Amino acid sequence: MNGFISTFFVCLITCGIFTFLFAGLILSNIWYITIVVAFLLAVAITIYMNQETRIEELEKKMEELSNNKQD
User: Which of 8, 13, 18, 64 has the most CB atoms less than 10 A away?
Assistant: First the structure.
């Protein structure tokens, strides 16, 4: 959960900067859209990072199993 919160705040800051630079004059609900986009981006990044961690763990287990079968 700690990783998600930090990812969310980084995404929130990044989306806020881009919102003010590119869409500040066009949209009326800037903060709402920025928070929603940052949240969705943070969810996607967190899922990707967790998948990568799980894949690495599975690779280690597969390597251990193959080493045990060879012995």
Answer: 8
Structure-block tokens of residue 59: 């690779």
pLDDT digit string, tens, across residues 21-64? 766 555 667 777 777 788 888 888 888 888 888 898 999 999 88
In this structure, what are the phi and psi dihedrals at residue 14, rounded to the nearest 5 degrees? -65, -45
Whole-number Cα distances in Å, 3 to 12, 31, 63: 14, 23, 28
Inter-residue contact 33 to 63 (CB < 8 Å)? no
Rounded to two decimals, the pTM is 0.52
